From TrEMBL:
Pfam families: DUF6535. This is DUF6535 domain-containing protein. It comes from Moniliophthora roreri (strain MCA 2997). The keyword Membrane applies. InterPro entries: DUF6535. The chain crosses the membrane at residues 34-51, 98-120, 154-176, 188-213. The keyword Membrane applies. Coiled coil: none annotated. It comes from the Eukaryota. Residues 10-184 form the DUF6535 domain.
Length: 600
């Protein structure tokens, strides 16, 4: 790429700075314009009420006329002088009329004041954006910075944020005046309006306090040394208003000294962890508030080294998941989506973006698989053997990254996949890795029997370090437990998991680059014998009419790897049941039994 010259750099820099300023001012102007429209409409409504209400503060001429008429009538009726003389009393407005007029006139004044200062703010912003000729680009940049710093110094942003609060206070005063009026007139309209006003005001105050009360808590990445707690996809409360920000800052400032009291500190830590976190380190604005939530999974994910291709950007993965789901039907967007997905490992794209957890559980996912899945689910499905179509996926609610079980499954898989190739017996790395697999307890949250990605054990059982290979045989106990199931679960869904394990195990034992520890160790050979016996007992390799060709090939491959294990380990000819039963008359026994069952 050609290096830009100095003038081009200044031009580009000034353009970006101007764009930032213009966006900031544009948002303020839009808020002010909305405020001016509402203030104008509201002032017109309040004016209509005050035109009527101010008359309650002075003597009504009609009442004076009635008094004099009563006096004339009394004289004409020859009533005694004492009783006929009607002396008009001095007019005194009732207290209700005084209160109502106070509320409504204050409301009108506040509304007009907010509109007045809204106009002033637009004038200030116009002057802030004035394009002043300067001698040099540096001077132009300095002028913009001076104006920006001056806006912050003189609190213009806070002033603009306070204008809606002024208008909301005017609306509240108007409501109070309406209720006071109805209280003196009739209880039924008063009750109805009181309920409506309380509901509106209550909703207003709830939305004002919710952002601080529901502040997301800090997620501690020490979870990787425990593996028993859940991580959650935390949402931010969208009710972000100027008054909510005032409450947030005020709450953090007022409550911070109380954290010095152990009892209150412990109470907030246990009952309102999110509030406690923000009192200790408040955000500078709403944007930093949101970005802190987005970045929290990356901030201290120390188990992933800097050289790892993947960091735990859960929110970015969720954004990719949504984006791909919305835009993948647009042919013009496919190349762009493909480029985006290339920035993350294929296994992450397949599981976290496409929710194809069953694929990443049993297969090594490549970039071509991701490209195939991007073209459509059927494309990926038809590229796999038919008996792999029915492998169950985890019972995780969609979207998976919104729920703790989905995040935990993703974190566990990526942690194990990242650690397996560099596992070592030093510093108990391999022991910690296996302990985490035993502690994770993913079976209950996923509804699966097999929860460890086979690519992990494929790397461990064929590791270059013999001590690591030997230690990794501890996982055989977990896989034996995964095979256990009642007889009615032999076919679906557990039977399909078992069949997928057989496929992955066959592929592992066929590796030509390295020899698996399962083939050369007594413990591994015993496990393979157990699997071979389970295959026969459960009839896993009895093909159906739709996958007969695929399963015939799998049967052949399984027998070949069993012979290889037998030769490498020097095992007797009858050690594995499939090989022991193979003779000229019984070589295809499983297939004959299956064909007979299909005919019947």
């Amino acid at each position: 790429m050609k290096k830009p010259n100095l003038s081009e750099s200044w031009e580009k820099t000034l353009k970006e700075v101007a764009k930032y300023d213009d966006d900031m001012v544009k948002n303020w102007k839009e808020d002010i314009d909305t405020l001016l429209v509402f203030a104008g409409l509201f002032s017109a409504v309040v004016t209509a009420f005050t035109i009527e209400s101010y008359q309650w503060l002075e003597d009504d001429p009609a009442d004076t006329t009635v008094t004099f008429l009563a006096r004339i009538i009394a004289i004409q009726l020859n009533v005694s002088q004492s009783s006929a003389e009607v002396v008009p009393t001095q007019f005194e407005p009732d207290s209700s009329s005084i209160r109502i007029n106070c509320f409504w006139f204050l409301s009108l004044i506040l509304s007009l004041t907010s509109a007045l200062f809204g106009l002033l703010c637009k004038q200030w912003l116009r002057e802030h954006q004035r394009d002043t000729p300067t001698r040099t680009p540096g001077e132009a940049l300095a002028l913009r910075q001076l104006r920006r710093d001056s806006l912050e110094k003189w609190g213009v942003s806070s002033f603009i944020s306070a204008l809606p609060i002024l208008l909301e206070l005017a609306l509240l005063l108007f409501f109070v005046g309406v209720l006071d009026l109805l209280w003196t007139r009739h209880p039924i309209p008063f009750a109805l309006c009181f309920i409506a006003v309380v509901f509106s005001a209550g909703l207003y105050f709830v939305t004002t306090f919710l952002p601080i009360l529901m502040a997301p808590e800090e997620q501690n990445m020490w979870w990787f040394f425990d593996f028993t707690k859940d991580l959650s996809y935390q949402f931010v409360c969208p009710y972000k208003s100027p008054q909510a920000w005032v409450i947030y800052r005020l709450s953090c400032k007022v409550m911070h000294p109380f954290l010095n009291f152990r009892l209150l500190n412990n109470l907030l830590f246990k009952r309102a962890r999110g509030l406690w976190d923000h009192i200790r380190s408040p955000a500078s604005d709403w944007s930093s508030f949101d970005l802190h939530v987005v970045r929290q999974f990356d901030k201290s994910a120390f188990v992933f080294l800097e050289g790892d291709p993947f960091h735990l950007k859960v929110y970015e993965l969720r954004a990719l998941q949504w984006t791909v789901n919305i835009l993948r039907d647009s042919p013009a967007m496919i190349p762009h989506l493909h480029n985006l997905l290339e920035t993350i490992p294929p296994s992450v794209a397949m599981s976290a973006v496409f929710d194809e957890w069953d694929v990443t559980m049993w297969e090594d996912v490549s970039a071509s698989d991701v490209e195939l899945r991007l073209q459509g689910r059927e494309k990926l499905r038809y590229s796999r053997p038919q008996y792999m179509w029915w492998v169950p996926a985890p019972s995780i609610r969609h979207p998976s990254l919104h729920h703790p079980e989905g995040i935990k499954l993703l974190f566990c898989h990526q942690y194990w996949i990242a650690q397996a190739p560099r596992a070592t017996v030093y510093f108990n790395v391999i022991d910690s890795l296996i302990d985490s697999m035993e502690k994770a307890d993913l079976k209950q949250s996923t509804g699966l029997h097999f929860v460890i990605p086979f690519s992990v054990v494929d790397a461990l059982w064929a590791h270059e370090n013999a001590a690591v290979r030997k230690q990794s045989l501890r996982l055989l106990r977990l896989f034996k437990e995964s095979w256990k199931s009642p007889p009615e679960h032999n076919k679906y869904p557990h039977g399909h998991e078992q069949l997928a394990f057989v496929v992955a195990l066959t592929r592992h034992l066929k590796r030509a680059d390295r020899t698996s520890e399962l083939m050369i160790s007594k413990r591994g050979q015993t496990f393979l014998r157990f699997v071979d016996k389970e295959i026969t007992l459960r009839g896993l390799l009895c093909p159906q009419y739709w996958d007969k060709a695929d399963l015939r090939l799998l049967i052949s491959e399984w027998k070949l790897v069993m012979r290889r294990v037998q030769q490498v380990g020097g095992l007797p000819s009858n050690y594995f049941q499939h090989i022991a039963s193979e003779d000229p008359l019984a070589a295809n026994r499983l297939l004959v039994v299956s064909d007979t069952a299909q005919t019947t």
